[in-house]
UniProtKB/TrEMBL annotation:
Residues 12-208 form the At1g61320/AtMIF1 LRR domain. It comes from the Eukaryota. The gene is LOC107935648. PANTHER family: FBD DOMAIN-CONTAINING PROTEIN (PTHR34145:SF68), OS02G0105600 PROTEIN (PTHR34145). This is At1g61320/AtMIF1 LRR domain-containing protein. SUPFAM superfamilies: RNI-like (SSF52047).
């Protein structure tokens, strides 16, 4: 780790250009190295970085390497309301780089992509980033444990892609992004509102096994949100324009939305996942029950050409599901069945 940090500092010392197009750190650092990471982030922002990626995930790394205390993103770097002095990027005790003065009115217009993995954001920091980075087009957040109620009420005109994965404390998400094309979510059931997204064509709304709630009531004794409402309720207005849809088989649940007429007549790609339980509210039985009306709602035409079944274990219910697809996909050209699971969108 010490060697890695020395190499990064050495690389930054050699940087001479006034513009930094891309800056990424891929190493399992944590909060104990926060002061140094702050310096690196300040360096990137000061030199008008277009793509900033901080990946401190511990995947495929020995457990002793990291203490699992997530790095917290520094709010001041993106807060236009604070008249910051020009950055003095100090890489170590004997070397410093005086960055150009930042214009607090448009100092972050260069940032187009922001990818944060195992970086904790507060609700306030999330809002500040979107408010300050007005030219941001792509935002990816994975394993941010402090997000609870995320809200951005002012229209963000440039944001095209928002990906939120495994933010386990998140309860509510409200985004106003008129030009949003892709929205991908994997995590606990939440109340979500994506406002005025007339360009939205890619949608992923999934729970994962770490967050599946088998109880019908929550800690307050109130009924849990039905999974059908998670997709077909909250995103019903966008279903007619969706071309690529990824969701859980359990989303079919008890919903009657599909009985109200065609909802998915622009759909070109559909991905369903299930834990393959034979019983219970989240089993594949619900998927079988609703797949017929779902496929009828796709279009009067037959677009389905290829089917991929991953994670196949020989379950008879899965076989029955495949046979249901055969009933409707009369133009089917290829079907691929794999025992490996290939469908995690956060990879």
């Amino acid at each position: 780790m010490e060697r890695f940090m020395q190499v990064v500092n050495q690389v930054l010392r050699s940087h001479k250009a006034p513009k930094l197009h891309e800056f990424g750190i891929h190493y399992p650092l944590d909060a104990s190295r926060g002061d140094l990471i702050d310096i690196w982030v300040a360096f990137a922002i000061a030199f008008k970085v277009s793509k900033l990626e901080l990946n401190f995930s511990t995947n495929q790394v020995p457990i002793w390497v990291c203490s699992f205390k997530n790095y917290s993103f520094p709010l001041d770097f993106f807060d236009k309301t604070k008249r910051n002095e020009p950055y003095l990027v100090q890489l170590d005790r004997v070397f410093s780089v005086c960055a150009p003065p930042l214009n607090v009115d448009n100092g972050f217009e260069c940032l187009r992509e922001l990818i944060l993995k195992s970086v904790d954001l507060t609700d306030e920091q999330f809002e500040t980033i979107l408010s300050s980075c007005t030219f941001l087009e792509f935002l990816h957040v994975l394993y941010s444990s402090r997000l609870v109620n995320v809200k951005h009420a002012v229209p963000h005109m440039k944001l095209k892609s928002l990906e939120m994965y495994r933010c386990f404390q998140l309860k509510k998400l409200e985004i106003f992004a008129p030009n949003l094309v892709s929205f991908k979510y994997l995590g606990p059931k939440i109340n979500s509102s994506v406002k005025d997204a007339k360009q939205l064509v890619h949608a992923c709304m999934r729970s994962n096994w770490e967050t599946w709630e088998f109880s019908r009531t929550n800690s307050l004794g109130l009924p849990n949100m039905q999974r059908g409402d998670f997709v077909f309720g909250q995103f019903a207005a966008y279903l007619p324009q969706i071309e690529h849809l990824v969701m859980d088989a359990s989303s079919f649940g008890r919903t009657k939305v599909l009985d109200n007429g065609p909802l998915l007549y622009n759909l070109r790609h559909l991905s369903l996942s299930s834990l393959n339980f034979a019983d219970g509210p989240f089993g594949i039985l619900g998927c079988l029950k609703w797949l017929h009306p779902l496929l009828r709602s796709v279009s009067p035409h037959n677009y389905l050409k290829e089917v991929l079944v991953s994670g196949f274990s020989g379950n008879k219910l899965v076989v029955d599901l495949i046979m249901v697809v055969f009933d409707f996909a009369i133009e089917l050209e290829k079907i691929e069945i794999s025992t490996a699971y290939l469908g995690d969108p956060s990879k």
